[in-house]
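Memo to structure team: turn this sequence into structure tokens by end of day. - J.P.
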Amino acid sequence: MSSSLVSSPPDLPAYLKGVYNLNPVIGAPSDDEVIRIHAVMQMAQKAVDIPGTGNPALLVKLAEHLFNVQMARYRIKYLTATLPENTTYTPPTLPSHLTVQLKPVVDAPSDEDIIGVQNAIQVYS
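Reply from structure team:
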């Protein structure tokens, strides 16, 4: 199953290829592949914020590509579980300077769990 999941990035303009030239992701993405997608998205967002430059449609395509690779990671990691209703989602270790602490989530996340992750992302960005 893992090698059958392929996510291809959108075509990038030269200024974004200079950040990272994204390649198709086969199977579960590595952390480095996800980091590269985030870096390209951040630069694309900066370009969109400047009037007359950037391409909002490209930003949407990059977000979709990020979603697809994250779903591939999820499918490979969690959908093979024998009893998915008893699956525990363990958060990554966060840098020590962040005041937000995430806890493992069992089964479906609560609204508080989702808000906690969103807060961690906001604090980290």
